[in-house]
Design a protein that fits this description.
The chain has 475 residues and is of the alpha/beta class. It is built from 18 helices and 19 strands. It folds into two domains: 109 residues, Diaminopimelate Epimerase, Chain A, domain 1 (Roll); 301 residues, Alpha-Beta Barrel (TIM Barrel), CATH 3.20.20.140.
Length: 475
């Protein structure tokens, strides 16, 4: 990863550590030979933003991504396997259906009259439950039955996710790890918590980390700094939210939505809240990661980082997750502050372009200011790649291809820059730039072996993951 041209023909590893690289395969060497069959070998891919627990859960449930109409939704719900006596459904997008709407509660009850159901929109920021679930969820304020947003959506999600046994939780994480390996990954950043105070099962996963096929880097998804310190975590957040999403019209914008001009969304917290959280976390030396999508929300978080800049002590302690709608002024401020931008290139693949969601809700001009990968890289911002899995697939190859082929070509990356998002840059985000992310002596022998060379300029990335090695062991 020194440059796109810096390649090797063979690697010598011992006890999981790279010892040497060779321009040609050594004719004689006292070592076991492992032939990867002509594959192109890259550093083990790293996904820097996932909800692995939810993704693992939903792998047992109903994937609604391919549904074309409500009848297709209902048939998938009826066939779903319950987990812990509940049915989970995910990647629902009403705009992709012939009817262009959510189902009604009555329709859901006809399909699942007695088993609690949680149907989650593709962006995760709205959803629905059936009556069986509605009656069991301990609402702080019972919402009107129907589409849930904001706190009601969070409370429904939290109830479904926290009522599983420890055995079921571990089973879910093992399922998530297997899917991550299938997508070519050796390291996965994952959020744990409800976004406020409860770390849920953080201690359980922390104490079983060595059992998983991938290395999970944990983010206690809470706003309680004292609890985070007690957990022994070097970071706080991940998806503690400054706002919601474009699709649910809950992302906080500086100007109104184009298709819903009566709103510009709302901030989830005040500026004083973010100022205080960053101050307390940075005083304790914690890295802070915040979900911010709209330019109004990004403004809040950048301002909080600026106000507390003297506490960062020269270390990169600030992350903005998603960082989607970015004005030129905000981009410059992020560059000056050394903020890390944890981006999801597949968002553009799904929602970019003149006729897709970004253009519909923001207008074509503002849509061009979404996912400004090239501008961030050119301005020296550390940009890393993530899937936001379960929102999109955990597939580094698809993320790399999306970064190379953004709808706004001015913001597209070179193939090498795109691979950097999921290797060298990603390692730097967690402070592991001397441990993995590159193929160099002294680094862990983490390899993603692909069927094709994804660094060839102008080539569509159709590479298949053939094998994955972590610390020299095939997964």
């Amino acid at each position: 990863m020194a440059s796109a041209e810096h390649t090797a023909k063979a690697i010598l590893e011992d006890k999981g550590i790279i010892k040497d690289l060779f321009d040609e395969i050594p004719p004689r060497i006292d070592a076991e030979r492992v032939d990867v069959g002509g594959c192109h070998v890259y550093p083990g891919f790293i996904d820097t933003h996932t909800h692995s627990f939810e993704a693992g859960i939903y792998s047992f449930g109903a994937d609604l991504n391919e549904a074309k109409d409500l009848e297709g939704v209902f048939s998938r719900l009826a066939e779903a396997r319950p987990l812990g006596g509940k049915v989970f459904a995910y990647r629902f997008d009403e705009n992709a259906l012939r009817e262009k709407r959510f189902p009604t509660v009555e329709e859901l009850d006809r399909v699942l009259p007695s088993i609690p159901l949680f149907l989650r929109r593709v962006d995760g920021h709205s959803g629905m439950v059936n009556t069986a679930a509605y009656k069991k969820i301990p609402w702080s304020t019972p919402p009107r039955p129907g589409v849930l947003k904001g706190r009601a959506n969070s409370e429904a999600s939290f109830w479904f996710h926290t009522s599983l046994s420890e055995e079921a939780i571990l089973k879910v994480y093992h399922a998530a790890a297997a899917q991550a390996v299938a997508g070519g990954h050796t390291v996965v950043h994952t959020m744990i918590g409800n976004g406020r105070t409860d770390p849920m099962h953080y201690r359980l996963i922390r104490d079983h980390l060595a059992e998983f096929s991938v290395e999970f880097i944990l983010y206690p998804q809470i706003t309680d700094v004292k609890t985070c310190i007690e957990l022994g975590s070097p970071r706080i957040g991940g998806c503690i939210c400054a706002d919601g999403s474009f699709g649910s019209h809950t992302a906080f914008l500086s100007e109104p939505y184009t298709d819903m001009p009566e709103t510009r969304g709302e901030p989830y917290h005040t500026q004083d809240f973010w100022d205080a959280l960053v101050r307390e976390a940075w005083t304790a030396g914690l890295q802070v990661a915040v979900h911010a999508i709209g330019d109004g929300a990004i403004e809040q978080i950048v301002t909080a980082y600026e106000k507390n800049a003297s506490l960062s002590k020269g270390r990169s302690l600030s992350e903005i997750i998603h960082n989607e709608l970015l004005t030129p002024a905000l981009l410059k401020r992020e560059s000056r502050l050394g903020i890390a931008a944890v981006m999801q290139p597949m968002f553009d693949r799904l929602w970019g372009g003149e006729s897709q969601m970004y253009a519909r809700v923001l207008g074509k001009e503002r849509a061009l200011s979404c996912n400004r990968l090239a501008s961030l890289v050119k301005n020296g911002v550390l940009v890393t790649g993530g899937s936001d899995w379960y929102i999109t697939e955990i597939d580094a190859g698809k993320g790399i291809d999306a970064a190379i082929r953004l709808h706004n070509s001015a913001e597209a990356l070179s193939p090498f820059e795109a691979v950097m998002l999921y290797t060298k840059n990603a390692a730097q985000l967690s402070g592991d730039e001397d441990r993995f992310g590159c193929l160099l002596p002294g680094f862990e022998a983490n390899f993603s072996c692909l069927s094709e060379d994804i660094l060839s300029p102008g080539k569509s990335v159709t590479a298949q993951v053939v094998s994955v090695y972590r610390k020299g062991n095939k997964l």
